Amino acid sequence: MMFVKLSQLLLLLLVVSGAIGLENGLARTPPMGWLSWERFRCTTDCMQFPDECISDKLFRDMADALASEGYADVGYEYVIIDDCWLAYNRDADGKLQPDASRFPHGMLDLSNYIHSKGLKFGLYEDYGTNTCAGFPGIIGHMEDDANTFASWGVDYVKLDGCYAQLHDMDIGYPAFGDYLNRTGRPMVYSCSWPVYQEFNGIKPDYEAIIKTCNLWRNYGDIQDSWDDILSIIDYYASKQDEIIPHAGPGHWNDPDMLIIGNFGLSKDQSKAQMAMWSVMASPLIMSNDLRNIDPEFKAILQNKKVIAVNQDPLGIQGRRVYQNNNVEVWTRPVMPVQNNQSSYAVVVLSRRTDGTPFKISVLLELLGLTNPAGYAFEELFDGVTHGELLPTDDFEVRVNPTG
Ligand code: GLA
Question: Separation of 102 CA from ligand 1 center, angstroms?
Fold first, then answer.
């Protein structure tokens, strides 16, 4: 028989209840889905832009496209409403309510529709007094709002950090996570906690963040340009020793949305974003118009082998291992593992603008690929195999400019 003194019992209870808050069992691999913000922003004029405004129709259209155009089949599952879905005021009981003209059937009806397609439903809110676009935030209503989300069948919550006290976040983000867990409904919890702190000179407490959030933004909002993709990649490279260790099953760094299929990226740049987001173990949350995507971009978004790298069960975030002549190499350890040696996903990224493919040649062991048994190489976008290489062999590829 085991005796536990009261003080020990309290401690045990605390540890146990803490553990419930830590792991909600979700996002064992990076979440995949679609989110409105980058492509559709805060378009609210449905008279003038009926196909683009943040409305019931937009999210039903996207759910339809995810289900019918092959995206759901390769893993994209969350349909997430970003900012600008709310009415400017809470209802008479203090409950959150959507804008009635743009969401005339209410949130539960939309949620049911998304679920009927075999998909999951995500919703945006903000930890502060207001969302970034000025709609009501959750501060002062955290428990009620968590319950409202659960009653609407929400599966994923993105909690932004505009109009909030930065130091309060260390208490408030975990508190809201607890309220979400206490509803009993599993909800992926996406936090903007570290990015607001980092941008204001506060060092994020990643040990606490990974115990609370399934994913979190580290850096600024993605924009529709190659330059912006590069600035995001630079951020993750420059902070890789600090950031990479926090990623793993259940908790991921989030460099923001995939913008493939929009206005700003060429085909090579799109392949580069897809490859980099996969090697960085990033959530694959598209923000684009799934009703109008050229087949070549769709094929990039739906490439199963590249997605398998992103979804690799080891959950290790990749790193930049080599830079020369404006070309860099990133590697990520992936399955299968044999004799304690992992396989690797390798990305060769070119920032060059001299318009012809550039040849790089580098010893495999310099990239950290040191398994004496060697490696069989396959180019994942084209499915072309390149034979086997030993660590002492040169890894030789040609890479197109800006991609
Ligand atoms: C912030 C977030 C974006 C988006 C907007 C909405 O800028 O970082 O991802 O949610 O707010 O207003």
Answer: 20
Pocket of ligand 1 contains residue 132 by CB under 6 Å: yes
Residue (of 32, 174, 145, 163) closest to 86 by Cα position: 145
Tell me if the pTM is above 0.85. Answer: yes
Instruction: State pLDDT tens for residues 151-164.
Output: 999 999 999 999 99
Q: Which domains does the chain have, with CATH numbers?
A: 2-15+318-399 (2.60.40.1180), 32-310 (3.20.20.70)
* Chain segment 68-102, per-residue pLDDT in tens: 999 999 999 999 999 999 999 999 999 999 999 99
Residue showing tokens 């660590």? 391
Which of 34, 36, 37 is the best mutation target for the ligand 1 pocket, counting ligand atoms within 8 Å of the beta carbon and taking the most? Answer: 37
The closest residue, in CA terms, to atom 3 on ligand 1 is: 221
254 lines ligand 1 (CB under 6 A): no
Q: Cite the beta strand spans of 219-269 per DSSP E.
A: 252-254
221 pocket-lining for ligand 1 (C-beta < 6 Å): yes
Tens of pLDDT, residue by residue over 354-393, are: 999 999 999 999 999 999 999 999 999 988 998 999 999 9
Q: How far apart are CA 55 and CA 60, in angstroms?
A: 9
